[in-house]
Amino acid sequence: MNRISFFRHLIGIILSLSLLINNTYAQDLNLPDIGNPADAVLSKNDEAQIGSSIMRQIRASGSVVEDPQINEYISEIGYRVASHINDSERNFTFFVIDDPSINAFALPGGYIGVHSGLIEATRSEDELAGVIAHEIAHVTQRHIARALAAGKKQSLLSTAIMLGAVIAGAAGAGSDAVQGAMAVAQGTQMQQQINFTRENEHEADRIGISALARAGFDPRGMASFFEVMSGQNTLASMRVPEFLKTHPVTSNRIAEAKNRARLFEKKDTKDSINYGISRARLIVSGKNSPQDAIDFYTQKEFKYMNEAEKYGLALSYQSAGDLTNAKIILDALLNSNKGIIAYHIALADILFSLEELDESIDIYEKAMKLFPRNSSVVIHYANILLQTGDAELAHDILLDLLNNVPPTPEQVRLIARAAIESNNPAEANYYMAEYRFMIGDLVGGINFLRRALNIPKLNEIQRIRFEARIDFVRDFMTEEQLQQLRRSSG
Known about the structure:
Helix content: 55-70%
Number of strands: 3
Strand content: under 5%
Low-confidence stretches: 1-35, 173-196, 234-238
Order of helices and strands: HHHHEEEHHHHHHHHHHHHHHHHHHHHHH
Strand order of the largest sheet: 1-3-2
Mean pLDDT: 82
Radius of gyration: 24 Å
Number of helices: 26
Shape: flat
């Protein structure tokens, strides 16, 4: 996201937060001071709406990693940890931002983002899980709502700017811009806000470490990552990691995290292969060239590489067009461990590139049986089917998946492509409408539904479904959006 886009993004967040906070405060003037003060300022429903709105803007910016294998892995780790934090009412969404900076963040409503640079910087799965546990705790402890409650005497706009600046960093904005906005917003209340933030950080550490241990990870993972970050924040460093700017780490905090971890049983954990695979995919995609990726992995002799490193080298060869060497490595990996989804996908894709179509399809068909409704397998297989002209089968397997697993916007756009290529324009327009809704374009979504309604030979069930969807969405539109909709209809 460029600087201009960032400020537009930030202004949108600020205005949304200002309006919501202002309305909430106005309703709160005559309320008795009972219960959780965070509820009086920002309800859980309000948090969900804010988080959803910001998430749509982040997705629209194009900064979210759409790799289904990485998304599946980060969600698996996130849900594993979240299930051990006592807040059963929370729904979480975990995602990765394509940004080399080392950072992670929590949005209101349970949206947890991790920068690709942070995943690469971790030395173990326990460290990655520790960061995610910390961010989950920020959500379950409602630190944003509590920050608003604590700063009730500050101006509403200053509070909105402060929150907007923190959250906008999620979209990969430069730290200077974020820190500048923070400084303006905090003014004379800066020290008070810093102290409150430190309290939040310590509370998130405490709850996160406990969840980490109960989820089967080494509770020392959080302190271990803090040490990694602290080591990078030296006089010799050219740049302080982003994580330290939003999550201040001191020697006392590291010591406290270590002491708390000692309260739990020490675990000798082993990184999962999917941790190594996800890191390898990010490392290869993040290199300037395929040769750089090959050079990165061939620093070590092949016989000394672990499975994830061999997989990373195979991906590097694949990116460089050396399909023969890539196939040799993946053949061996798959033969040694048929339970790893990534090996099936990578080998099938290489065989397809080698024009060994029957062999490629055969691997995918077997994988579909071994891993039913697995998002990564289905998405990759659907892309192959679309390239071979079997759009109807692609549409069918995608529809089955998306009816059972919450889709991402890009997955909805993929099924729209499958629908149009299988000569089903009404459903294609319906899917494109849903895609536009998911990224926050209500007017554009309704216009796609209108196109669907104008398609000849539309059956009655489709007509009722499309019209009902339009009526439903219109109820959530602002007056400005309704006027825009009327103008677009001519």
